[in-house]
Amino acid sequence: MYNFNLQIPTKIHFGKGMVVNLGKDILEYSDKVLLVYGGGSIKKNGIYKDVTDELIKNKIEWVELADVDPNPRIESVREGIKLCRQHDLGGVLAVGGGSSIDCAKVIAVGVKYDKDPWDLVVDKKLMKDALPIFSVLTLAATGSEMDPNAVISDMATNQKLGTGAACTVPKVSILDPEYTYSVPVKHTAAGVADIMSHTFENYFNTNDAYMQARMAEAILKTCIHYGPIALAQPENYDARANLMWASTWAINGLLAQGASHAWSVHPMEHELSAFYDVTHGEGLAVLTPAWMRYVLNEDNIDRFVEYGVNVWGIDKNLDKLQIANMAIDLTEDFFANKMNIPMSLSKLGIGRENFEKMSVKAMKGKDSIKGMVELRPEDVVKIYEMCL
Ligand code: NZQ
Ligand code: ZN
Hints:
Shape: globular
Strand order of the largest sheet: 1-8-5-4-2-3
Order of helices and strands: EHEHHEHEHHEEEEHHHHHHHHEEH
Radius of gyration: 20 Å
Pfam families: ADH_Fe_C (PF25137), Fe-ADH (PF00465)
Protein name: Alcohol dehydrogenase, iron-dependent
CATH architecture of the largest domain: Up-down Bundle
Structural class: alpha/beta
Bound molecules: 5,6-dihydroxy-NADP, zinc ion
GO cellular component, one term: cytosol
Domain Fe-containing alcohol dehydrogenase-like C-terminal: 188-386
Number of helices: 15
Helix content: 40-55%
EC number: 1.1.1.1
Number of strands: 10
Distance between the termini: 37 Å
Mean pLDDT: 97
CATH topology of the largest domain: Dehydroquinate synthase-like, alpha domain
CATH class of the largest domain: Mainly Alpha
């Protein structure tokens, strides 16, 4: 196991009706916040009312930034910073999925930064200080509720970049599984694919971090068990609760620390979203089985065998290569047939026209992605081609 530092300071209130804890916790920091949310789902499903009732009860004033897009844009960040300054707000409260929470994070830092916030997206080292960040999670997927990361897009330049620092970890997050009952099938499935991908990014490595690997397998099994139940029964509390908690733990640092290499599938997917604005989890689901097939080799086959045996229950006495290939096939089948995700780039409306450009940008300014298997742009083009 590698050395690591880990601090996860987010206070979580998990369960039905736990929004009642929000007001008093916000008041420890401020009584005037920016309320950040997306395209209006929270007004239809009653979450907006729960949250604003809680703010009113605690005499917390708020100003609203609505219409944050899925794949949040830098323009929303700029607007949020302006509102915080104009109204002298002391905190940022996101109510939504990863897009609203990520947008809130960069707003919170941008208020303390005197130049354009795109700088903060390009260079996370500039993130020194932030207004306190709070979240009410409405979609189990990104783990933004308990991690420092924020992914922001500039569609004008086809850039989608991840940033984050210690100051962007939320202070408090409300995780009420009932708030995810109204998540449509498409986003429930994409969320499950995202949780699984975060777990795969940490799990597929050549380092021996036994405990992290077993916890990763537990998260994967949770997704495989409860994903289809949540699709069939959107109001199944146990399914929504387990997926919500899996989303948080897949990316809050526990699986990564001591174990992980650079992530591989996420940088490839972020280019799909940057060029074609696809749903993050769907892009990941398409790329994951192809990436697995491409990187499987003699050095890493044992991890694929563990995945097949421990997660999918494949007979451990079979030939190693057979187990590895069966595990990849089962992964693909799960996304395609159990989660009903459109499983090719063409089904997502993507052709090969930008593969070269996207593959270079996926390197994020370096020569290669140094994941479990090092990938150069030509490798990424081949993986994209396998997904057509
Ligand atoms: O905009 P609204 O009206 O809220 O509707 C959203 C949106 O259309 C809807 N939705 C969310 N909760 C709902 C609901 N609809 C009904 N009922 C509810 N309870 O779902 C749609 C997608 O929402 P979004 O927030 O975009 O989804 P997600 O949570 O998957 O976030 C995706 C963004 O997060 C980034 C992605 O790249 C993408 O930009 N990521 C953030 C990460 C992080 N912060 O750590 C890591 C991830 O790897 C990822 O890159
Ligand atoms: Zn992700």
